[in-house]
Amino acid sequence: MAVVVVTDSSASLPAELVADLGILVVPLHVLVDDRALGEGVDDEPIDYTSSTVTTSAPSPGELCAAYERALARSGGDGVVAVHISRQLSATWEAGRQAIRDMDAADRVRLVDSLSAGLGTGLPVLAAARRARAGAALEIVYDAATSAAARGRAFIVVNRTEQLRRGGRLSSAAAFFGTELVTKPILQIVDGRLELREKARTRSKAYAKLVAAAVDAAGEDGATVAVQHLGAPDAADTLTAQLTDLIPDIRELVTAEFGPTLAVHLGPGAVGVLVVPGGCG
Questions:
Q1: CATH architecture, domain defined by 4-149
Q2: Which InterPro entries does its entry note (predicted)?
Q3: Can you spell out the DSSP letters for 156-170?
Q4: Which one, of 124, 134, 145, lies nearest residue 251 by Cα?
Q5: Helix (H, G, I), strand (E, B) or coil at 102
Q6: What are phi and psi of 59, to 5 degrees?
Q7: 207 vs 154, 202, 211, 214, CA distance in Å?
Q8: Range 214-218, long-range pairs (CB < 8 A, 24+ positions)
Q9: Do the Cβ atoms of 80 and 140 come closer than 8 Å?
Q10: Domains of the chain: which residue ranges?
Q11: Which of 17, 163, 196, 271 is most buried, by the most CB atoms less than 10 A from its CB?
Q12: pLDDT tens series, the chain, 280 aa
């Protein structure tokens, strides 16, 4: 058998990669009025601008069941679970509690991706590819932690109100009004979402986003990902620019932000994720 990699739905990985690499994905939840929708399971329209829409992590019980299913599938070889940053979600902590309740806890490794969206998804890919090649549990775990440590994430949003409302944005950005005159470029640092810099227009914000990603990618090859929410043209333009400017892109992954991140980022958000050295 082989080590099985588990992640949560916020990782935003394309379905074909999930299927090809045998990744087990645990749904996060979007709470709409009195209904809890499973991300990637319950396909219902969501008003991402509504102040009544919130998100929640899977329960320890849900994660325990997923880890046990993955462990059984691995034939005892082990499980590596890679989740959204513990600074942005309770998912990692729920995973830690779940492992405590397992009889074979020594065969499960938990990884904080220090990021979100495809910033989580890229370390998942690094781990899953090692697992498919037959690597041992610790090697698969090291692949995930290495990619997570090297990863850089940059995001442009139209408004910060949803981020502040959800408590995901540091107080450093509190001076922004509800209707932004400037556009913020955000970054994830040590798992926390922070303000990087400002731009006066969206086009200038995108230019700064590209510049930050190119600088982070370095000269020795990188895996690159582009995400968006309802901004496919901007994502296409950024993808073309990154392809021209980053030498030796080893892999390029594109996806929309899933519902749990969309609730906090809002329509029009665009992100670029980079792992210098690639994901194997």
A1: 3-Layer(aba) Sandwich (3.40)
A2: DegV, DegV_C, DegV_domain_contain
A3: E-S-SHHHHHHT-B-
A4: 124
A5: coil
A6: -75, 160
A7: 12, 9, 6, 11
A8: 214/242, 214/245, 214/246, 216/152, 216/154, 216/274, 216/276, 217/246, 217/249, 217/274, 217/276, 218/276
A9: yes
A10: 4-149, 152-276
A11: 271
A12: 799 999 999 999 999 999 999 999 999 988 887 777 777 776 667 777 777 888 899 999 999 999 999 999 999 999 999 999 999 999 999 999 999 999 888 999 999 999 999 999 999 999 999 999 999 999 999 999 999 999 999 999 987 766 766 556 655 444 454 444 578 899 999 999 998 988 989 999 999 999 999 999 999 999 999 999 999 999 999 999 999 999 999 999 999 999 999 888 988 999 999 999 998 7
* Beta-bridge partners for 108: 79
Q: Left (φ > 0), alpha (ψ -120 to 50) or beta: where does 239 sit? A: alpha
DSSP state of 172: G
Cα gap 88→193, rounded to integer Å? 8
Q: Given strand 183-189, what is the order of strands in its sheet?
A: 192-199, 183-189, 152-156, 270-276, 222-228, 249-256
